[in-house]
Fold:
Amino acid sequence: MRVVTAFNRILRVPGAWVTGAAFTDDGVVVSIRAKARRHRCPCGWSTAARYDQSRRRWRHLDFASMPVWLEADIVRVDCASCGRVRTADVPWARPGARHTRDLEDLIAWLAQRTDKTSIAKLLRVSWEAIQRVVTRVVADHITDRRFDGLRHIGVDEISYKRGHKYLTVVADHDTGRVVWVAEGRTQAALEGFFDALGPERRAGIEAVSMDMATIYRDATRRAVPHAAICFDPFHLVSWANKAVDAVFQNVDRRSSQLTGREWRQARYALRAGAERLGSRHHELLAVIEHDRRQLFHAWELKEEFRALFQTVDGDDADSYLRDWIHRARASGLPSMVNLARQIERNFEGIINTVRLGLSNSRLEGVNAKIRLINRRGFGHPKWQNLAAMIHLCLGGITVPLPTQR
Ligand SMILES: [Zn+2]
Structure:
């Protein structure tokens, strides 16, 4: 079998023939020629005429451990439709790319699953190259179709750069997918999303969940006045946890049955959801129940508040929460009384959450996943880079592997 034939069969470069191969210090350089006679402008217009041409190399999937480069003529066309000279598309690579589509897809597939350092080492590509690939692959996959049929959405601010910078993220409660990422935590960042939806899709929005900060509330009321505003249980429960922690901080830990180490374990037990506790934690809580009655009561109130989002029926939510507020007030614990006041102020939004069933939210994990993505990429100097990673990992994008082609 001739070498050229062998490379043709092995590489299966889409839309191209292999015309030669050379082993160089950089790896294997495989010359290819496009099968099509006509050159296509990115706008879709095509011509047989070349404006000019030059040689370009694209990095391809490795051949065993040897880097493989595809080399071909890249043609520029004088596009009658665009009215200017543009580089013609090639079937094996995305416009402007220096890696083939196969290699880019492999990089993006890995970026959905692992950290940048591992990808850079495994595939011998730079961090910058990985970032450019992710941006291109996302641009290739993302369409306005992701806005179709949205009914229940959640908007949240995500901090990055150690809490110095923020992104506004909109996700779909029904699929758990992120549909929008914008810079900053401003009304404008959310307005951009509602503008992108357009009037018809805005009319389909039934509920918008958010935290209790007022930033997003006004923009939501203006854009989708018919939609119910709900509050994320995640944020509400974190309020309740803070209130319990305030009681914990004020507890006199001297002359207690619990040791310092046990108090630290107890603090975890008080904070975690009751269903996640082991028998050891329950033992500690039993001691606290006898030993530090008020702290135990604060914990009980917190768990009863959590139950609102887990087990209470939508029709009963109103009376359940009113009763809870009454008991929190009666506890006499300043942080709990304060919490009751805050909750009363946001009563309607909390009831909406339970009534519309947005409480068992798939979005609770989105925040944590974004933090993980941020860590895997070690910082993301530009917000657009982090945004592209979020779309890639949480936007429901399926990247095909070259082996699945
Ligand atoms: Zn054109």
About this structure: Residues 144-231+363-404 form a domain with the Nucleotidyltransferase; domain 5 fold (CATH 3.30.420.10). Residues 41, 43, 45, 79, 81-82, 86 surround zinc ion (CB under 6 Å). The first strand starts at residue 16 and ends at 24.
